[in-house]
Every structure is written in structure tokens, then in C-alpha cells.
Amino acid sequence: MSGESRATWADNWLGYREEIKVVDVTIRDGGLMNDHEFADDVVRDVYEACVEAGIDYMEIGYINSQEQFPPGEFGPWKHCREEDLRRIVGNNDTSLKLAAMADAEKSDYKTDILPASESVLDMIRVATYIHQMPLALDMVKDASDKGYETTLNLMAVSTVPESEVKSALEMLVRSDVGAVYVVDSFGSLYSEQIRALCNMFFKYCEGTPIEVGIHAHNNRQLAFANTIEAVVLGANCADASFAGLGRGAGNCQMELLLGFLHNPKFRLRPVLKCIEQYVEPLRSKLLWGYDYPYMITGLLNQHPRAGMAFNASEDRGKIVQFYDQMEEQE
Length: 330
Prior knowledge:
single chain; 42% helix; TIM Barrel; 2 domains; alpha/beta
């Protein structure tokens, strides 16, 4: 997206950009809170709500290794086998596109990702840490050669030196990837940092067909703010989830993002209905969303796994104890 178009959007935020694509990550990211053991009716209702709401893509889960993540220990949305997908969506004769994520070093992608002509999926999203870039680029090429749209999510960017981010972008812009994502994995970034990263990504992608995307976590209650910061700057791919359901503190709330975008094709009521009937009833068990342990890991720029473990322990609620433990590890 050109600098002129980005400036126009920033000056006229009550308008809307048709090119912005919204990606629902409710089941994929939310499944990190329950080993992807969602009941079929929950997945089906999220799918149907995405269709009715006019959302562009639904990321329905992972295609990760069945050897590393045995089916008996993880639900079907850790693997997204074709029979499981079609049980929910049939042939997906809708305008909604379906996506799945494959993690670098956790996916048997050459065998488990079918040719697009044999799958109901439309997009493969590759998630990678900076040291896994060569493998991630091979995964992007494999998916592209099989006929899929692709994205690359550069995880934990808040921990990566700027020089290494630039090196990764130099590699990415020579690939077949459709979009590269700024990913605030730990929910540690402020809007000023999002702005600097987005501008860096725009600079490298300028003159290519590669879009820039944003995937934010809510450890410091900034997921929505950081998402709209990226969108106003010109990011055309935005991740969000119903009620923010996602790992740890969760993600940008879909219901907030759709309201901000102003595009009349989006409809809020189906999202709210799904949240009321299926998502909110899961909260007391899955315990996602802003909470003090996640705030603390975000402030310390650390993975939320320690906060997730603490919230599942008998010590849940002992905020100072958790803070002291994390400070001692610094």
C-alpha cells in the first residue's frame, strides 16, 4: 500500500478500505487454552458466524505434527485433517475462506498439507521464530506450490534485534508469500513500537504484492489499540477473535475491530450471538483474557506460559507472589 493511500486513510478514518481482510483466529489461537479440544458445535457456530458476519478468513486450527502432538492428547484442530474440516464446513460453498497454521519445526508439512485442489482450505499460514526462517521460507514455497494463499507470521518480534528483522524481511520479499505479519506474541509492545515495525515492514514490501498484517495479544490491554494502529498505517490483514479468545491474555476482540472498520459488509450481530451462546460460557474453564499474571509477563517481554501455569495452579490470585517469582528470573 502506498504512502499516499495510508495518509488518506489516516485523515479519513470514518471511511473504509475495501482491501482490508479480517482473519478470525478464535479456534486456532483459542485452542492453545484447551489443547484444541473444542466440541464440533462450537467450531461450527464460529464458522457460521464468520460467514454471516462477512469475515474474510477463518483460521480453523493448526496442521501440526501428529507425532509431536498425538491425536489422543490433542483435539482435531491441532491437525486439521480433511475429514474433520469437512465434517464442520462441508465443501464450504461460501464467500468465507479457510486457513490453517503450520509451525516451523512442528509440522510435517510436506506430507500433511494436501494439494489445495484436494482440500477445503484456501490459505496456509506459516508461524516462525527468527532462527527458523530458512525452514519457514521452504514451508511457504511448499504451500504456494501446492496452490495455497500464504502468510508468514514472524513470532516474538519484540525479542528480535532490528538488524535481524531487516534480514528476515530481505529474505521474505524475495519469496512467494502473500502477507507478512507483525506479531506481538507476548503482548509487550506499545503503539509507538507497532508503528515503527509496521513502517519497517512497509518499506521492505513496497513495490511487491506482499501485504502487511498484524496479530496482537492483549497482555497490556493494547491488542485492539495496536491492531487499529497498524490498520490506520496501512496494514491490510488484521487478526482478531471472538471475545478475544486466544492464548493467555487473548487477542484483539473481533467485535471491536468490526465496529472500527466501518465496512458495511461486516455484520456484528452474528458475532455477538456466537459469543453469547458459545464463547462466553467457555471463559470460566479456559480463563483467557487480561489478567495480572499476563500483564506481568507482558511487561517483562516474556512468553505467557508462566502466567498460564500460575493461573491453573492453587496459587492463582497471589499476584505479588507471581510478580516476585518472575522478577527473580530476570
